[in-house]
Write a structure and sequence with these properties.
- This protein has a single domain, classed as OB fold (Dihydrolipoamide Acetyltransferase, E2P) (Beta Barrel), CATH 2.40.50.
- The protein has one helix and five strands, in the order αβββββ.
- The chain has a five-stranded mixed β-barrel with strand order 1-2-3-5-4.
Length: about 80
């Protein structure tokens, strides 16, 4: 019985962590702040860029699609796709 409960608990914890997956946002870039590692989209959404994610292609007027995680109340991008 203990083994079954242990397995059930492990599955529940695993599913809980899987539910904390990244969300996505997209739009045109209004401004870029390399010092803060942040961008603002035209709709006012502010996204911080995680360390290790390159910012060299981020420019005002370009479209961006970002996968992000909520960290301390901030949207922190873990991946970015930039297009014209």
């Amino acid at each position: 019985m203990r083994k079954v409960l242990g397995i059930a608990l492990a599955l529940l914890l695993g599913l809980g962590l899987a539910g904390a997956s990244a969300e996505e946002v997209s739009g045109k870039i209004k401004s870029v702040d390399p010092a803060q590692r942040a961008i603002v989209l035209e709709d006012g959404t502010m996204i911080w860029v995680a360390e290790g994610v390159p910012m060299d292609k981020l420019q005002e007027g370009k479209s961006v699609k970002a996968s992000y995680e909520e960290r301390e109340g901030k949207k922190v991008a873990t991946t970015l796709e930039v297009s014209e």
